[in-house]
Design goal:
By secondary structure, this protein is mainly alpha-helical. The chain has one domain (31-153). Helix content is 47%, strand content 10%. The protein is built from seven helices and three strands; from the N terminus they run H-E-H-E-H-H-E-H-H-H. It has helices at residues 2-13, 43-53, 68-72, 77-94, 116-121, 131-141, 144-153, and strands at residues 33-34, 59-65, 99-104. The protein has a three-stranded parallel β-sheet, with helices on one face. Helix 4 packs across helix 7 (144-153).
């Protein structure tokens, strides 16, 4: 009897008329952001992930570790951003999304530890010079306004 009652309520609760998307719904008071991290590290999956969330998202998130080994070997922060981050930024811009960049100077997965790359290099934590200076250079180079400049310079 309970199953029959539930089925009747379900049928009576459904309308035959389609309701337009967003009808009677208040707009969000926040921005919804996504990153391009897909279920597998494959280009096709990556692009499908971006395409899927671009239907709902308002901003694009760029989450990046500091490339300690390259920076501490005196590779230009601007070169690294142009080479490694600009293509992603251009993909997001192609969808019309503003960018939010999150730089992780320490260990992004185990926040109670230093960066694995820094530990492997035997370097000081990101909070102490000269490592902190390197981190600031990378962070300054990783801003979306710098990426816009980098795209004109290449």
């Amino acid at each position: 009897m309970g199953v029959l009652l539930a089925l009747v309520c379900l049928v009576l609760g459904c309308k035959g008329d389609a309701v337009p998307a967003g009808a009677g719904v208040s707009p969000r008071t926040y921005r919804l952001g996504f990153s391009a991290i897909g279920p597998r590290p494959e280009t096709a999956v990556f692009l499908a992930t971006v395409q899927l969330w671009s239907q709902r998202g308002d901003i694009a998130l760029v989450q990046t570790d500091v490339p300690w080994a390259a920076l501490l070997a005196d590779t230009s922060a601007g070169l690294l951003v142009t080479r490694d981050q600009l293509p992603l930024a251009n993909l997001y811009r192609g969808h019309g999304f503003p960018l939010v960049v999150m730089v992780e100077p320490e260990n992004g997965l185990a926040r109670d530890r230093e960066s694995d790359a820094l530990a492997a290099l035997g370097r000081s934590p990101p909070s102490r010079p000269p490592t902190s200076d390197t981190c600031w250079r990378w962070t300054a180079s990783s801003t979306p306004s710098t990426w816009a400049w980098s795209s004109r310079a290449t």
